[in-house]
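HUMAN: You are asked to prepare a plain-text protein record giving the amino acid sequence and the backbone structure tokens, both parts labelled.

ASSISTANT:
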Amino acid sequence: MLSDLYVPDESQWLSTSTGRISSDGYSWMQAVHWVAASGLYQPRRHRSHGPRSFGPTTLRVAQELAELLPCRPGIGYLVRRTGLSERSVEYHLGMLREAGLLAWIVKGTRVSGGPAQASEFARMVPVEFDVALGIRTVQRDEDAPAYTRAVSGIAETGRELMAKLAKKASRKVRKPRAKASSKTPAKGARQGAEQGVVTAFLDQARCTPMQVGPSTVFAAGGTSFPPESKLASGDAKSPTPEKSNAKAGGRRELNRVGRRFQLARELTQELDWLRGCSVARIAWVARGVADAGWTVTDVKGWLHLRGEAARVHRGSGLLAVLLAGAETVLDTPTKRADAVEQWRGAQEAARRHRIHQIRARTERYDGDWDAPTSRAVQRQVDEAFTTSFRPTPQPAVPGTEALPEVSSVGSLGDEVVAQARTEARQRLMVGDTSLINVAVNAMGRETAEQLYGPNLVRRALQLASCARSSLMTYGRQ
């Protein structure tokens, strides 16, 4: 009498397995069908959740594994091939490992912010299968591990059973068709339909739904046809199952928690200072804006208004401070769109400034001479260029206020400079410091003060520094 099949977690690795590696997927499917029909493995004896039996669904998952070489399936691949959910695929993979039919070679990993790595399995044949069929094995290399032993023969008593298993392994186990009847079948009928595709052997005989004794034929589920009278009148319903309302790929629409995790995952991928942070923690921090329907672009626009930190010690804590009250300030899509436009404008201005710097550096050192390698010499050369090309201050003109200093900026006229100061002052009144900030970053503070005046530049820089504080928010009352 054979004992129950169960392999604990510590013995589910190839190095600790007691079975042998199957030579090909066809012979491995013979062992899988034998385990399914023998009844020696019962999942509910070892856990309180998951499938109740080793049935047709497990065989369908095993069929997909038998066709892979090497056996390195991803959860998403099995979901697409079988139509099952991720949790169901994980359950049936665990059942195959507990039955001794799979063993870990490499266990997959999931790194936050990176791609998931699939696990690699070895298709194993348990020792109970060899004992039940009288299969003889031999170890050809004494130095090789025990799981590399090969088949050398089979007993006469097991040849007939092996032939039946060969027929079952050569046929495909397909998904049962949905019944057209709206009435719920009885409990016994459901159990018979679930167990009808697996033929029983040994002492535990099982019958298919439409036969009396054991059979080696796969049952695909019965189909009831309506009488011809109903077909003629058009009253009979089609036995074709109705189309599912689910999305393509078996994915359901995200709920509130799903949207939080989706936004958190995008933030950890888009923002450099959030790389490596826990997605679950970021989802909890950004729950307010996620529930308000914000996208990752909206969050970037808001962070641009709040300001960026030079050094980040704890990304999740900084994000919690920056997002405090964000959904109440930018409470409409129009306000969020304005913030996004300002962020994109600043990105474009920064890009142009970098291009201008690179172009100026290239033009400055472009010539027949080689740039010095010493930092001290480079510093002296920069000072010489700065002194040579420094703008010459214009003499003061009586009757004008600060315009002599202004007129030296790019040879601009007084009316143009006055109009620029007026525009900068109006923007500063509504909290927009981008115009002066771009001038300071592009031309330097000294030249910006000549163009806009020291008072406007000082007020703009003070307001920009206050924007980085969590005690100050933008908005109108």
User: Anything to note?
Assistant: Strands lie at 20-21, 102-106, 120-125, 135-138, 150-154. Confidence is low (pLDDT under 50) at residues 184-243, 399-408.
